[in-house]
Protein backbone atom coordinates (compact mmCIF):
# COMPACT_ATOMS: atom_id res chain seq x y z
CA UNK A 1 0.00 0.00 0.00
CA UNK A 2 1.40 3.41 -0.93
CA UNK A 3 1.45 6.16 1.66
CA UNK A 4 -0.20 9.53 1.09
CA UNK A 5 2.24 11.97 -0.49
CA UNK A 6 2.49 15.05 1.71
CA UNK A 7 3.66 16.96 -1.34
CA UNK A 8 0.02 17.03 -2.44
CA UNK A 9 -1.78 19.73 -0.51
CA UNK A 10 -5.55 19.76 -0.29
CA UNK A 11 -7.45 23.04 -0.55
CA UNK A 12 -8.05 23.03 3.21
CA UNK A 13 -4.41 22.34 4.04
CA UNK A 14 -3.30 25.06 1.66
CA UNK A 15 -5.61 27.77 3.00
CA UNK A 16 -4.67 26.90 6.58
CA UNK A 17 -0.96 27.08 5.72
CA UNK A 18 -1.55 30.52 4.23
CA UNK A 19 -2.90 31.67 7.61
CA UNK A 20 0.45 31.08 9.31
CA UNK A 21 1.80 34.35 7.94
CA UNK A 22 -1.12 36.25 9.48
CA UNK A 23 -1.21 35.66 13.24
CA UNK A 24 -4.39 37.76 13.63
CA UNK A 25 -6.34 35.98 10.88
CA UNK A 26 -9.55 34.38 12.08
CA UNK A 27 -9.70 31.65 9.44
CA UNK A 28 -13.04 32.93 8.15
CA UNK A 29 -11.82 33.21 4.56
CA UNK A 30 -10.47 29.64 4.70
CA UNK A 31 -13.88 28.55 5.97
CA UNK A 32 -15.65 30.37 3.18
CA UNK A 33 -13.39 28.78 0.54
CA UNK A 34 -13.97 25.37 2.09
CA UNK A 35 -17.74 25.97 1.91
CA UNK A 36 -17.49 26.98 -1.76
CA UNK A 37 -15.38 23.87 -2.45
CA UNK A 38 -17.96 21.67 -0.74
CA UNK A 39 -20.87 23.07 -2.77
CA UNK A 40 -18.75 22.76 -5.94
CA UNK A 41 -18.27 19.04 -5.26
CA UNK A 42 -22.03 18.60 -5.02
CA UNK A 43 -22.61 20.55 -8.22
CA UNK A 44 -19.86 18.52 -9.89
CA UNK A 45 -21.57 15.24 -8.99
CA UNK A 46 -24.83 16.52 -10.48
CA UNK A 47 -23.11 17.84 -13.63
CA UNK A 48 -21.50 14.43 -14.09
CA UNK A 49 -24.90 12.74 -13.92
CA UNK A 50 -26.53 15.19 -16.35
CA UNK A 51 -28.37 13.15 -18.94
CA UNK A 52 -29.07 10.34 -16.48
CA UNK A 53 -31.14 12.27 -13.99
CA UNK A 54 -33.77 14.87 -14.73
CA UNK A 55 -31.37 17.80 -14.58
CA UNK A 56 -31.12 18.86 -18.23
CA UNK A 57 -33.26 21.57 -19.74
CA UNK A 58 -35.19 24.60 -18.61
CA UNK A 59 -36.58 25.09 -15.12
CA UNK A 60 -39.51 26.94 -16.72
CA UNK A 61 -38.66 30.35 -15.27
CA UNK A 62 -36.99 33.54 -16.50
CA UNK A 63 -34.42 35.13 -14.18
CA UNK A 64 -33.88 38.78 -13.34
CA UNK A 65 -31.43 38.86 -16.28
CA UNK A 66 -34.25 37.99 -18.68
CA UNK A 67 -32.68 34.57 -19.39
CA UNK A 68 -34.37 31.18 -19.42
CA UNK A 69 -33.30 29.49 -16.19
CA UNK A 70 -31.94 25.94 -16.50
CA UNK A 71 -32.54 23.31 -13.84
CA UNK A 72 -28.84 23.20 -13.13
CA UNK A 73 -28.77 27.00 -12.62
CA UNK A 74 -31.32 26.50 -9.84
CA UNK A 75 -29.57 23.48 -8.34
CA UNK A 76 -26.18 25.24 -8.28
CA UNK A 77 -27.64 28.43 -6.86
CA UNK A 78 -29.30 26.45 -4.04
CA UNK A 79 -26.08 24.59 -3.23
CA UNK A 80 -23.87 27.68 -2.96
CA UNK A 81 -26.49 29.74 -1.15
CA UNK A 82 -27.29 26.88 1.24
CA UNK A 83 -23.72 26.05 2.14
CA UNK A 84 -22.87 29.70 2.85
CA UNK A 85 -26.08 30.29 4.80
CA UNK A 86 -25.29 27.37 7.10
CA UNK A 87 -21.56 28.14 7.29
CA UNK A 88 -20.00 30.58 9.70
CA UNK A 89 -18.00 32.80 7.34
CA UNK A 90 -20.50 34.71 5.27
CA UNK A 91 -22.99 37.41 6.28
CA UNK A 92 -24.88 37.55 2.99
CA UNK A 93 -24.83 36.75 -0.69
CA UNK A 94 -25.87 38.05 -4.09
CA UNK A 95 -26.34 35.78 -7.08
CA UNK A 96 -26.97 36.07 -10.80
CA UNK A 97 -30.04 33.90 -10.22
CA UNK A 98 -31.64 35.91 -7.41
CA UNK A 99 -33.48 39.22 -7.85
CA UNK A 100 -32.04 40.71 -4.69
CA UNK A 101 -29.21 40.07 -2.23
CA UNK A 102 -29.84 37.83 0.78
CA UNK A 103 -28.87 38.97 4.30
CA UNK A 104 -28.33 35.93 6.54
CA UNK A 105 -30.07 36.89 9.75
CA UNK A 106 -28.93 34.22 12.23
CA UNK A 107 -26.60 35.44 14.98
CA UNK A 108 -23.51 33.60 13.69
CA UNK A 109 -23.82 34.77 10.07
CA UNK A 110 -24.56 38.37 11.06
CA UNK A 111 -21.26 38.42 12.91
CA UNK A 112 -19.28 37.28 9.87
CA UNK A 113 -17.14 39.78 8.06
CA UNK A 114 -17.53 38.66 4.44
CA UNK A 115 -20.12 38.81 1.69
CA UNK A 116 -19.97 36.57 -1.35
CA UNK A 117 -21.30 37.23 -4.87
CA UNK A 118 -21.57 34.55 -7.53
CA UNK A 119 -22.60 33.25 -10.88
CA UNK A 120 -23.55 29.77 -9.65
CA UNK A 121 -23.55 28.18 -13.09
CA UNK A 122 -21.70 29.87 -15.92
CA UNK A 123 -22.21 28.69 -19.47
CA UNK A 124 -25.79 27.49 -18.95
CA UNK A 125 -26.24 27.26 -22.71
CA UNK A 126 -23.63 24.48 -22.77
CA UNK A 127 -25.19 22.25 -20.09
CA UNK A 128 -27.39 20.25 -22.41
CA UNK A 129 -24.54 19.45 -24.83
CA UNK A 130 -21.87 18.25 -22.39
CA UNK A 131 -19.48 21.18 -22.83
CA UNK A 132 -17.47 22.64 -19.90
CA UNK A 133 -19.37 24.91 -17.55
CA UNK A 134 -18.37 26.60 -14.31
CA UNK A 135 -18.99 28.77 -11.26
CA UNK A 136 -17.53 32.24 -10.59
CA UNK A 137 -17.35 33.94 -7.17
CA UNK A 138 -16.18 37.06 -5.47
CA UNK A 139 -15.54 37.85 -1.79
CA UNK A 140 -15.60 41.29 -0.14
CA UNK A 141 -15.17 42.45 3.42
CA UNK A 142 -18.49 44.01 4.41
CA UNK A 143 -18.55 47.78 4.93
CA UNK A 144 -21.41 47.74 7.47
CA UNK A 145 -20.64 46.78 11.09
CA UNK A 146 -20.47 43.10 12.02
CA UNK A 147 -23.48 42.07 14.08
CA UNK A 148 -25.95 43.97 11.88
CA UNK A 149 -27.68 42.59 8.75
CA UNK A 150 -25.77 43.31 5.53
CA UNK A 151 -27.14 45.97 3.18
CA UNK A 152 -26.83 46.65 -0.55
CA UNK A 153 -23.84 48.88 0.17
CA UNK A 154 -21.85 45.78 1.12
CA UNK A 155 -22.37 44.37 -2.38
CA UNK A 156 -21.91 47.53 -4.46
CA UNK A 157 -18.18 47.91 -3.84
CA UNK A 158 -15.71 48.48 -6.68
CA UNK A 159 -13.96 45.28 -7.72
CA UNK A 160 -10.58 46.49 -6.45
CA UNK A 161 -11.95 45.98 -2.93
CA UNK A 162 -12.21 42.20 -3.43
CA UNK A 163 -10.48 40.11 -0.78
CA UNK A 164 -10.61 36.99 -2.92
CA UNK A 165 -12.15 35.74 -6.12
CA UNK A 166 -12.30 32.36 -7.77
CA UNK A 167 -13.94 29.99 -10.15
CA UNK A 168 -14.62 26.32 -10.70
CA UNK A 169 -14.52 24.58 -14.08
CA UNK A 170 -16.56 21.40 -14.46
CA UNK A 171 -14.63 20.13 -17.45
CA UNK A 172 -12.56 17.14 -18.48
CA UNK A 173 -11.36 17.46 -14.92
CA UNK A 174 -12.89 19.66 -12.26
CA UNK A 175 -10.83 22.54 -10.96
CA UNK A 176 -11.12 25.27 -8.37
CA UNK A 177 -8.90 28.32 -8.89
CA UNK A 178 -8.82 31.19 -6.43
CA UNK A 179 -6.89 34.40 -6.02
CA UNK A 180 -6.06 36.60 -3.08
CA UNK A 181 -3.73 39.54 -3.34
CA UNK A 182 -0.90 37.09 -2.62
CA UNK A 183 -1.38 34.98 -5.73
CA UNK A 184 -3.51 32.69 -7.83
CA UNK A 185 -3.58 28.96 -7.13
CA UNK A 186 -5.37 26.13 -8.88
CA UNK A 187 -6.67 22.87 -7.38
CA UNK A 188 -7.84 19.82 -9.29
CA UNK A 189 -10.53 17.59 -7.84
CA UNK A 190 -9.13 14.12 -7.21
CA UNK A 191 -12.32 12.06 -7.54
CA UNK A 192 -10.75 9.08 -5.77
CA UNK A 193 -10.53 11.03 -2.49
CA UNK A 194 -13.08 13.77 -3.19
CA UNK A 195 -10.60 16.55 -2.46
CA UNK A 196 -9.38 19.56 -4.40
CA UNK A 197 -5.58 19.13 -4.54
CA UNK A 198 -3.06 21.84 -5.38
CA UNK A 199 -2.11 21.25 -9.02
CA UNK A 200 -1.36 24.74 -10.38
CA UNK A 201 0.59 26.72 -7.75
CA UNK A 202 1.19 30.44 -8.27
CA UNK A 203 -0.45 30.82 -11.68
CA UNK A 204 0.90 33.66 -13.85
CA UNK A 205 -0.75 34.76 -17.07
CA UNK A 206 1.83 34.83 -19.89
CA UNK A 207 2.45 38.39 -21.12
CA UNK A 208 1.62 37.34 -24.69
CA UNK A 209 -0.44 34.54 -26.15
CA UNK A 210 -1.77 33.50 -29.53
CA UNK A 211 -5.41 32.99 -28.65
CA UNK A 212 -8.22 35.50 -29.08
CA UNK A 213 -11.72 34.63 -27.92
CA UNK A 214 -14.78 36.52 -29.10
CA UNK A 215 -18.21 35.76 -30.54
CA UNK A 216 -17.61 36.33 -34.25
CA UNK A 217 -21.33 36.07 -34.89
CA UNK A 218 -21.69 39.60 -33.49
CA UNK A 219 -18.81 41.05 -35.55
CA UNK A 220 -20.85 43.60 -37.48
CA UNK A 221 -22.40 44.85 -34.23
CA UNK A 222 -19.04 45.72 -32.66
CA UNK A 223 -17.47 49.19 -32.63
CA UNK A 224 -14.93 50.08 -35.33
CA UNK A 225 -12.08 49.81 -32.80
CA UNK A 226 -13.04 46.26 -31.80
CA UNK A 227 -13.50 45.23 -35.44
CA UNK A 228 -10.09 46.68 -36.21
CA UNK A 229 -8.46 44.69 -33.40
CA UNK A 230 -10.14 41.45 -34.51
CA UNK A 231 -8.99 42.16 -38.05
CA UNK A 232 -5.42 42.67 -36.77
CA UNK A 233 -5.62 39.34 -34.89
CA UNK A 234 -6.59 37.59 -38.12
CA UNK A 235 -3.73 39.21 -40.01
CA UNK A 236 -0.98 38.14 -37.60
CA UNK A 237 1.77 36.15 -39.26
CA UNK A 238 4.77 34.34 -37.87
CA UNK A 239 6.80 37.51 -38.45
CA UNK A 240 4.83 39.42 -35.81
CA UNK A 241 4.08 36.81 -33.17
CA UNK A 242 1.30 35.01 -35.04
CA UNK A 243 -0.53 33.34 -36.45
CA UNK A 244 -3.25 33.73 -33.82
CA UNK A 245 -5.91 31.14 -33.10
CA UNK A 246 -9.56 31.90 -32.43
CA UNK A 247 -11.12 29.86 -29.59
CA UNK A 248 -14.59 30.48 -28.17
CA UNK A 249 -16.34 27.90 -26.03
CA UNK A 250 -19.21 30.12 -24.92
CA UNK A 251 -18.60 29.41 -21.22
CA UNK A 252 -16.57 32.35 -20.04
CA UNK A 253 -15.10 30.29 -17.20
CA UNK A 254 -13.58 27.80 -19.64
CA UNK A 255 -12.53 30.47 -22.14
CA UNK A 256 -10.83 32.72 -19.59
CA UNK A 257 -9.30 29.76 -17.73
CA UNK A 258 -7.63 28.56 -20.92
CA UNK A 259 -6.35 32.06 -21.75
CA UNK A 260 -5.07 32.58 -18.20
CA UNK A 261 -2.97 29.43 -18.45
CA UNK A 262 -1.88 29.68 -22.08
CA UNK A 263 -1.93 33.43 -22.67
CA UNK A 264 -4.62 35.10 -24.73
CA UNK A 265 -7.38 37.67 -24.80
CA UNK A 266 -11.13 37.23 -24.18
CA UNK A 267 -13.63 39.85 -25.30
CA UNK A 268 -17.33 40.33 -24.79
CA UNK A 269 -17.79 43.82 -26.28
CA UNK A 270 -20.90 45.93 -26.36
CA UNK A 271 -23.05 45.49 -29.48
CA UNK A 272 -25.47 47.80 -31.24
CA UNK A 273 -28.31 45.74 -29.70
CA UNK A 274 -26.70 45.54 -26.24
CA UNK A 275 -24.28 48.44 -25.75
CA UNK A 276 -23.23 47.06 -22.34
CA UNK A 277 -22.68 43.55 -23.68
CA UNK A 278 -23.91 40.53 -21.76
CA UNK A 279 -21.58 39.87 -18.87
CA UNK A 280 -22.42 40.92 -15.34
CA UNK A 281 -19.98 43.23 -13.56
CA UNK A 282 -20.46 41.78 -10.08
CA UNK A 283 -20.69 38.06 -10.81
CA UNK A 284 -18.50 37.60 -13.89
CA UNK A 285 -16.29 40.55 -14.83
CA UNK A 286 -15.04 41.69 -11.40
CA UNK A 287 -13.95 38.27 -10.12
CA UNK A 288 -12.09 37.47 -13.33
CA UNK A 289 -10.57 40.97 -13.50
CA UNK A 290 -9.21 40.47 -9.97
CA UNK A 291 -7.82 37.01 -10.76
CA UNK A 292 -6.21 38.13 -14.03
CA UNK A 293 -4.65 41.23 -12.46
CA UNK A 294 -3.14 39.20 -9.62
CA UNK A 295 -1.76 36.84 -12.30
CA UNK A 296 -0.18 39.76 -14.21
CA UNK A 297 -2.89 40.37 -16.82
CA UNK A 298 -5.37 43.22 -17.30
CA UNK A 299 -9.12 43.77 -17.68
CA UNK A 300 -11.06 46.79 -18.98
CA UNK A 301 -14.48 47.72 -20.34
CA UNK A 302 -12.72 49.21 -23.39
CA UNK A 303 -12.16 52.53 -21.63
CA UNK A 304 -11.51 52.00 -17.95
CA UNK A 305 -10.16 49.36 -15.63
CA UNK A 306 -12.94 46.96 -14.62
CA UNK A 307 -11.84 46.98 -10.97
CA UNK A 308 -12.31 50.78 -10.74
CA UNK A 309 -15.96 50.80 -11.84
CA UNK A 310 -18.25 51.82 -8.97
CA UNK A 311 -21.34 49.59 -9.29
CA UNK A 312 -24.80 51.10 -9.03
CA UNK A 313 -26.92 47.98 -9.60
CA UNK A 314 -26.50 44.37 -8.48
CA UNK A 315 -27.12 42.99 -11.96
CA UNK A 316 -25.43 45.63 -14.09
CA UNK A 317 -23.65 44.55 -17.23
CA UNK A 318 -20.38 45.71 -18.72
CA UNK A 319 -18.39 45.14 -21.89
CA UNK A 320 -15.32 43.07 -20.99
CA UNK A 321 -11.83 42.81 -22.45
CA UNK A 322 -9.49 40.63 -20.41
CA UNK A 323 -6.25 38.75 -20.80
CA UNK A 324 -2.50 38.88 -21.31
CA UNK A 325 -0.98 42.28 -20.64
CA UNK A 326 0.78 42.65 -23.99
CA UNK A 327 -2.37 41.81 -25.94
CA UNK A 328 -4.49 44.15 -23.81
CA UNK A 329 -2.01 47.00 -24.41
CA UNK A 330 -2.24 46.36 -28.12
CA UNK A 331 -6.04 46.33 -27.99
CA UNK A 332 -5.97 49.72 -26.21
CA UNK A 333 -3.71 51.18 -28.91
CA UNK A 334 -6.06 49.89 -31.58
CA UNK A 335 -9.21 51.20 -29.90
CA UNK A 336 -7.59 54.61 -29.24
CA UNK A 337 -7.52 55.28 -32.98
CA UNK A 338 -11.34 55.39 -33.15
P1 LIG B 1 -24.49 32.44 -17.89
O1 LIG B 1 -24.61 31.02 -18.37
O2 LIG B 1 -23.98 32.53 -16.49
O3 LIG B 1 -25.74 33.26 -18.10
O4 LIG B 1 -23.32 33.15 -18.71
C1 LIG B 1 -23.15 32.87 -20.07
C2 LIG B 1 -22.17 33.86 -20.64
C3 LIG B 1 -20.72 33.46 -20.58
O5 LIG B 1 -20.39 32.32 -19.93
C4 LIG B 1 -20.33 33.32 -22.02
O6 LIG B 1 -19.05 33.83 -22.22
C5 LIG B 1 -21.37 34.11 -22.76
O7 LIG B 1 -22.53 34.00 -21.98
C6 LIG B 1 -21.62 33.58 -24.13
O8 LIG B 1 -22.54 34.41 -24.76
P2 LIG B 1 -22.79 34.38 -26.34
O9 LIG B 1 -23.46 33.09 -26.64
O10 LIG B 1 -23.65 35.59 -26.58
O11 LIG B 1 -21.44 34.53 -27.02
MN1 LIG C 1 -27.49 33.03 -16.94
MN1 LIG D 1 -22.14 33.46 -16.54
MN1 LIG E 1 -24.94 31.79 -14.72
Automatic annotation (TrEMBL):
GO molecular function, one term: magnesium ion binding
Domain Fructose-1-6-bisphosphatase class I N-terminal, first and last residues per copy: 10-201
Keywords from the UniProt entry: Carbohydrate metabolism, Cytoplasm, Hydrolase, Magnesium, Metal-binding
Pathway info: Carbohydrate biosynthesis
Family annotation (InterPro entries): FBPase_C_dom, FBPase_class-1, FBPase_N, FBPtase
A cellular-component GO term for this protein: cytosol
Residue numbers binding substrate: 215, 248, 278
CDD domains according to UniProt: FBPase
EC supergroup of this enzyme: hydrolase
The record's free-text note on cofactor binding: Binds 2 magnesium ions per subunit.
Pfam families: FBPase, FBPase_C
Main location: cytoplasm
Ranges where the Fructose-1-6-bisphosphatase class 1 C-terminal domain occurs: 206-335
Domain of life of the source: Bacteria
Positions that bind Mg(2+) 2: 119, 122, 284
Binding site for Mg(2+) 1: 96, 119, 121
Keyword Disulfide bond: no
The protein's Enzyme Commission number: 3.1.3.11
Entry cofactors: Mg(2+)
Subunit structure: Homotetramer.
Family stated for the protein in its record: Belongs to the FBPase class 1 family.
Protein name: Fructose-1,6-bisphosphatase class 1
Amino acid sequence: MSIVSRKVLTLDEFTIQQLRDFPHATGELSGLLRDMGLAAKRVNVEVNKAGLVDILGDAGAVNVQGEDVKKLDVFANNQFTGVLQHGISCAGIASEELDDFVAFDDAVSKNSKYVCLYDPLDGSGNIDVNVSIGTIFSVYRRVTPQGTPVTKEDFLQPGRMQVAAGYMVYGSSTMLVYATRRGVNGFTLDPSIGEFCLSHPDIKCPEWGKIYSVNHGNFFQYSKGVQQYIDACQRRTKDNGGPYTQRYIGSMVADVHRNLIKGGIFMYPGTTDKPKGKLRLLYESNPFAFILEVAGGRATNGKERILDIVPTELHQRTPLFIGSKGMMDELDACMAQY
